[in-house]
Amino acid sequence: xxxxxxxxxxxxxxxxxxxxxxxxxTVLCNPVLARASDLADLSLEQLAQVVVTSASRRQEPLxxxxxxxxxxxxxxxxxxxxxxxxxxxxxxxxxxxxxxxxSQYAISARGFNNLLANRMLVMxxxxxxxxxxxxxxxxxxxxxxxxDIERIEVMSGPSAAQWGTNAVNGVIHILTRNARxxxxxxxxxxxxxQGSGVAARHGGQWHENGWYxxxxxxxxxxxxxxxxxxxxxxxAQGVQAGFRATWEDGARTMTLQGDAYRASLDQQPGSxxxxxxxxxxxWRLGLGDxxxxxxxxxxxxxxxxxxxxxxxxxxxxxxxxxxxxxxVQYALRPAGAHELLFGGGxxxxxxxxxNPTTFAFVPTARNMTWSRFFAQDQITxxxxxxxxxxxxxxxxxxxxxxxxxxxxxAWRTSDRTLWWAALSRAARAPSRIDRDYRQPAQPPYRxxxxxxxxxxLSDSLELGRRAQVGRDIGYSVTGFVHRHQRxxxxxxxxxxxxxxxxxxxxxxxxxxxxxxxxxxxxxVSGGGVVLRQRLRVSEGATDQGGLAALGNDPRHWxxxxxxxxxxxxxxxxxxxxxxxxxxQPAVSAYTALxxxxxxxxxxxxxxxxxxxxxxxxxxxxxxxxxxxxxxWDRAATLMVRWQL
Length: 644
Description:
With about 650 residues, the chain is mainly beta. The protein contains eight helices and 37 strands.
């Protein structure tokens, strides 16, 4: 069936699978040349000194960050055996990750989770993964060479003062490796119950100060099963290729990178086709006195062709989205007690859609521009006390300007302990679904976007502590309260149900995680979140389903992970996770146990066997508003990785 519908994808995928088989035979039949000695595990002290940038747009050690941030390292990713970006994000205990089908996920932090979650800002190397249709991320369209990820900075809590609107509940920033660090060849292949894939990368050098890498990958995801055991008909397959080039000349660094992809995802009544390409350039100049200038520009085009259930044959929603995004940032040298940073950004998109008969976006084409200015002052009040004041002023194409300030206080009580507190305001700007949506495509309408829909607002108070106990234990604890205003509601009117801003309420909770170096070669980590929400209709207003549409969140989730080096060439991973029940639509609580055993028979070679849901109990992670849900059972995957 897939071969008949997608011959070009199938042909390319078959060639790559053949190459994977040859690679696996070469690797497994090769004599052991030497035992692998690169156990790139970070010690707890090294992890605390990992340099991050998402909290303040400056480079700073994780131990000094006055925010709730968890870092997924390249070693965490390699040892997990994850084959997709959403599965990698399960490693962050502050994220709620729920799989709906073979390709679609609901991912959020601190609540409001759904398949169209719109309160998280997600970036890859500074490129925002954003659709103006609903202000969120289409996770099925996001892919990259997993082995090229350097780290993922997952910050829960608002960061709109630094990054702008939509950074309401958190920021996920995926940073890939410098081309200089990916020299040589790398190939991976995996196959299992849930799908298969192959990838290859080559890195080289030109002249004295230039480096590059190119890669290509292909994947197939198998049909999952719906609740009850029948096939879900949600198989998917795709191909992607890309490159990154870096040139360094003293204080100047230039980077150019790009990716292109095409994928096909089975669904009813027909396959959904997605494709896209982007080109990103970044230039950084260190000015020698502690200041620097950074400029970034990217161009992107994405396309989607999605058949819909309709009385008419071949009825489909089609979209072409073109994006131009530019940012300039200037960080001044420290002047007395002050470290200043400021900059601005401009984002312009053209969104062109072809509407089906069942729903519509009106007008069919929109040109939209977002502009913003941001500034930050980090003030040293005392040797152990720092105050960071920041603000972003952003103008969106729908309801004007939002002022998004924040204040963060950090108090280092010792070399190993940091207390911090933060007050912040964040906004979720209107999207096309809020203003332009119509259902059906012609009147009389059942639902329609509100002409007066405004930005949703969230004011937040956070208090946290990050500490290291001796050489073996490190932890982070954060308590938070969010006050929400002008949340999206559904108001019944004579012309149809109108999207307006008549919901409000609070979210409160706590999140914590810890790392324990139990012994040499054995690391244990774990964390979890406790969440409580109280949302209501504003006084004098009515709502018809808006509360249920905001999200479907468990009251708690937690995870525990063990990483154990059995020998220098053999390691064993075990991950246990528990997610509480979701209220509406109802999804039962579940516990999942995953494990992976990996062997390094030779230098640069790794063979790993992963088993998911080892406990064997089928479970549902997400249920759509229609009641449809997919079940996840035990599944195994064999992966081979070869690097020269």
